[in-house]
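Q: Can someone sanity-check these two? First one:
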Amino acid sequence: MAEIKLKSLSKKFGKTDALHPLDLEIRDGEFMTILGPSGCGKSTLLNLLAGLEAPTTGDILFDGESVIELSPKQRDVAFVFQSYALYPHKSVYDNIAFPLAVVKTDKKEIDKQVHQVAQLLEIENLLERRPKELSGGQRQRVALGRAIIRRPRVFLFDEPLSNLDAQLRTQMRTELKKLHRKLKTTFIYVTHDQTEAMSLADTIAILRDGNLLQTGTPEKIYKEPANMFIGSFIGNPGMNFVNAELIENGAKVKLENRIFELSLIVGKPGEIMAGLRPEYIQIADEKHPGTIPARVEVVEHLGSEALIEVTTRNNSTLIIRTAQELDLSMNDEISLNLDLSKASFFDKSTGSNLPIGE
């Protein structure tokens, strides 16, 4: 296992900044996910950690010691790829055993460890098969087995579930979480899928355009996004944004012609954006002075819940998530309760979060 620290780490390809200088700490035994859209620098960061790329500036420390000058092998990391990268002509047994066979480990020891890993991943019945005879989920387990058998200090995962169907991805997320608990090793997992990041991680680091925007627990990032991009990127669907006005030195917010009294918001009076998660908007049983009039545009039934798209009189579009059994149709007039005590507020010009006081 290893504690990892990145200090002012950056990477340029020619004149292009793939990764701007960043500092990041990953605790020993932590499950860290690196999350962001395509092209944000996630894979570049993983390649720097693995030693496949050299940084332009900065340092990488494993347990307080720099590994910048060390090769991938010397860093003692295991890389699990999106493409599995299995040897098609070798059996599952030989694919898993390969890292030990290369360093000429005793055959009895190899056999012992292969069966231990296969038992851990529940693939003992597949050891004699070739990769072409396996499903996508089984191939991913074999790729994991080949990484595990090395007993590395750090596991690096580059979008390993993206080739699987939705149901299998859900199953494999559960298995990865269990595996992490059993191995107690540092996991660093790159993904563009915020559902994967939220369900797997102890800590999430969000990248955009090569910049580290926010680091925190899934709950922290969901409830207190550092900016509007994170609010929209995290959550399915993402956060709703509504034009609002901060008045009386932050003591009150005007939104859709309603005045809401809140704890002090840090910021000068003026235009702001209010961010509300879909579950923080409720359909009112009846109109009252605090409700917001709206018109139903779309109702999407998802079994145990429904997503309802509405338009307010000020032409704001909102998505509501509700478990209520509602008989609604397009163009129905309804009233909304907005729980602004759980809202986030953002500077309209910069998109940065405006903290709410106690």
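And here is the second, same format, sequence then tokens:
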Amino acid sequence: MSNQTDVQNKGRQQPMLKVSNLTHTVSLETDTLTILQGVSLEINRGESVAIVGRSGSGKTTLLGLLAGLDTPTEGTVELDGAVISTLSEDERAKLRAQRVGFVFQSFQLLPALTALENVMLPLELGGVESPARRARELLERVGLGERLNHTPRQLSGGEQQRVAIARAFASDPAVLFADEPTGNLDNRTGQSVSDLLMALNREQGTTLVMVTHDEHLAARCARQFNIEAGVLTEPEIRNAVEPMS
């Protein structure tokens, strides 16, 4: 019996993200505003998860707490085995550098650097060998092999987001957080960017957690959560409807 239990335990994977009773409040002059209330969830390794909600519902705050950009008022956040809600700011920053990638709605590229240099930067900071070669490979993978030496102002919005995605995957993150990754893009370009995110999620096995108001993008994820007034719900358990490539 014990041997069977050992086999079962070995077969269980530790969740990439585990959140328990997460509450986050902000103190105002005359009151306290509750942004998140009693949020609990688990996200497995390699899963794609969408968090959907209206503006002001708390979804971006939740993403920041999951990524260790902030600490909750109550509850715990565990990322890849580390309880990040108890770590110092420096410890959280180190963990993010090693295990986390980010894609933002506003791209967050450095305007004075070329596409190649923007992707090289985290590789150089991480002490990766041959950062230029790795950055070039990533940019070619996202379809920008001919745009390596262009600065952000010389790139379209879709191209800038592709550079941002290449940069996010540069350090082989265990989990990628995306905050409205198609929010500043037209429908066609947004579709192309979402195709890329889903393909990289499959190919590299990176856990993908995205905040989006785009229901079509959310529907491509294996799981979808809704958040309203700081309360998180998972409407149903279903298989991803990711189209065949």
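A (reply): Looked at the second one. Confidence is low (pLDDT under 50) at residues 1-11. The longest strand covers residues 32-43.
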